[in-house]
Design brief:
70 residues; alpha+beta; three-stranded antiparallel beta sheet; 3 helices; 3 strands; globular
Length: 70
């Protein structure tokens, strides 16, 4: 795999599903993976490599999870 996705975190009530979704998103890469997460309404946090730094990206569902303090 050659893309700029450094890390993926998926929150799910079942850890096996969270792991499977995170692996799938990692394989898809940052753009397709984020679009997939949005389509599936998954709470996802991604760290994407930039030229000299990292960019954090999260789905609205992940933001809601954080804001509610779950």
């Amino acid at each position: 795999m050659q893309h700029k996705l450094a890390s993926v975190t998926v929150i799910h009530k079942n850890c096996e599903n969270a792991d499977a979704y995170a692996t799938a998103i990692d394989v898809m890469g940052p753009k397709e993976g984020y679009e997939f997460a949005l389509k599936m309404k998954l709470p996802v946090f991604m760290i994407v490599r930039d030229s000299n730094s990292f960019i954090e990206k999260m789905t609205p569902q992940f933001e809601d999870f954080i804001m509610k303090g779950n």
